[in-house]
């Protein structure tokens, strides 16, 4: 009898294990806000201490040459939730500009222009909506621009959004991290208790200004002789790191660490100046200080930790997450599903990335080209910037001229030497890649187009 009962117990236990193993992985997106790709211990910063993100990196596949296609808060986040470039989802800047075009849209539809801008997410759809179809619950905290968190498909969250007070970019959600982690931790606990796969959007307003770190951290950097404004930024990076440690530790202690994919990225770069602002070639710029970020994927037991040399883009994150969830994609994406390569260690079949920069304020919410300032392409170690005449808004750092700019990122990571005049054939070749990526709506193909260009307005890039 004991043998029979033991056999039944073993079978029951095995069934539970199989059921647990069959549950889709939880997915957690950790999104830093305004932090340079250099500003981590594991990325080689000589002063900033990030022990928790260092630990995450040691357990992850790390792409040190990661990029965001558009180096500004709202467009970067829209790419991360829609899987589309800014020129595709039409959210190219943080706010609509006060232009005749936008005023006409608002008048014709008798709707505030801010609401019309938010409505772009209704047209594109969003990651939490697609995950919900496969049984996921989801939580939003931190930065969120597109109305309420429910409008993006989150089942739970902190942001009430426009038109509520403070609804521009997160309202109550901006308290996460700075004022504790409990809303996110409680959501994880409830999801685990309910045995539901969960998606967490953790996008704290950190290390973003205001730089108000705890004195216990700030004093450490002041003691190192760091100028006060820079010390405050350094301390913010460490404070953000502490919150990431709290989140990852809670996931592991909840017993779901091995069935949770954690993805790390930042929205755009930031180079702190002693004057208190950010340097020109950082946030909002197409230079490395603006667009580059480490990108990490952690999934214990499924993805072996590795330091990968290939290029990676935040445009790849949505299709990769959907693949991990076993969820059907609503359409093809311009980014790549990296999951097969993350699992096997095989090389990613791509050596080229694209990006674009726009004015801070959106000149025409339905015509991305109206605010276009730059398009860029990286192939291998070479990077080409092309400039455009995107106009209105807070153009604090407009293009100095319209000349192409070519850099060798391996020998000149600070992008100080323009090689365009020395390498005209390479400029032509990379320029053709940009023209064949897409030709901005309303513009004729530029001088870099081939004889018979075939513009790809919504490219669908897949690996072989």
CATH architecture of the largest domain: 3-Layer(aba) Sandwich
| First and last CA, distance | 57 Å
Overall pLDDT confidence: 90
Count the E strands. Answer: 15
**How would you sum up the major sheet?**
9 strands, mixed
- The gross shape turns out to be globular
Helix content: 25-40%
**Radius of gyration, CA atoms, in whole angstroms:** 23 Å
The SS-based structural class is alpha/beta
| Total helical elements | 15
Q: Can you tell me about this structure?
A:
The chain has 464 residues and is an alpha/beta fold. The N terminus and C terminus are likely disordered. A hairpin with a 2-residue loop joins strand 13 and strand 14. Helix content is 32%, strand content 16%. Helix 2 packs across helix 11 and helix 10 packs across helix 11. The termini are far apart. The protein is built from 15 helices and 15 strands. Strands 1, 2, 4, 5, 6, 7, 8, 9 and 10 form a 9-stranded mixed β-sheet that branches. It folds into 2 domains: 324 residues, Alkaline Phosphatase, subunit A (3-Layer(aba) Sandwich); 84 residues, Arylsulfatase, C-terminal domain, CATH 3.30.1120.10.
């Amino acid at each position: 009898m004991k043998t029979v009962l033991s056999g039944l117990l073993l079978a029951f236990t095995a069934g539970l294990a199989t059921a647990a193993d069959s549950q889709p992985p939880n997915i957690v997106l950790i999104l830093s806000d305004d932090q340079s790709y250099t500003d981590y211990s594991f990325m080689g910063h000589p002063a900033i201490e990030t022990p928790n993100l260092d630990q995450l990196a040691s357990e992850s596949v790390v792409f040190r040459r990661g990029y965001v296609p558009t180096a500004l808060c709202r467009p970067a986040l829209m790419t991360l939730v829609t899987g589309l470039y800014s020129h595709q989802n039409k959210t190219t800047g943080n706010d609509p500009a006060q232009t005749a075009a936008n005023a006409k849209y608002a008048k014709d539809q008798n709707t505030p222009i801010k609401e019309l801008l938010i409505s772009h997410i209704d047209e594109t759809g969003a990651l939490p909506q697609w995950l919900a179809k496969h049984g996921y619950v989801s939580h939003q905290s931190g930065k969120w621009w597109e109305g309420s968190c429910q409008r993006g498909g989150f089942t739970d969250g902190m942001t009430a959004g426009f038109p509520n007070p403070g609804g521009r970019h997160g309202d109550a959600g901006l308290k996460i991290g700075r004022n504790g982690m409990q809303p996110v931790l409680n959501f994880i606990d409830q999801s685990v208790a309910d045995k539901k796969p969960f998606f967490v959007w953790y996008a704290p307003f950190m290390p973003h200004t205001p730089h108000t770190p705890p004195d216990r951290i700030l004093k450490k950097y002041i003691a190192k002789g760091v100028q006060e404004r820079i010390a405050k930024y350094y301390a913010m990076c460490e404070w953000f790191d502490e919150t990431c440690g709290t989140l990852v530790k809670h996931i592991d202690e909840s017993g779901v660490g091995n069935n949770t994919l954690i993805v790390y990225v930042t929205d755009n770069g930031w180079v702190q100046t002693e004057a208190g602002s950010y340097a020109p070639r950082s946030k909002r710029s197409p230079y490395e200080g603006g667009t580059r970020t480490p990108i990490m994927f952690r999934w214990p037991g499924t993805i072996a930790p590795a330091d990968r040399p290939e290029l990676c883009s935040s445009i790849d994150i949505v299709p990769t997450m959907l693949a991990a969830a076993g969820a059907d994609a609503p359409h093809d994406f311009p980014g790549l599903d990296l999951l097969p390569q993350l699992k096997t260690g095989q090389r990613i079949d791509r050596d080229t990335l694209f990006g674009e920069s726009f004015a801070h304020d959106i000149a025409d919410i339905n015509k991305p080209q109206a605010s276009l300032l730059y398009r860029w392409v990286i192939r291998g170690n070479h990077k080409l910037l092309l400039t455009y005449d995107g106009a209105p808004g807070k153009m604090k750092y407009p293009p100095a001229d319209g000349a192409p700019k070519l850099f060798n990122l391996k020998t000149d990571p600070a992008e100080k030497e323009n090689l365009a005049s020395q390498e005209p054939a390479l400029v032509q070749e990379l320029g053709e890649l940009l023209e064949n990526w897409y030709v901005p709506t309303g513009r004729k193909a530029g001088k870099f187009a081939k004889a018979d260009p075939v513009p790809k307005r919504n490219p669908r890039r897949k690996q072989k």
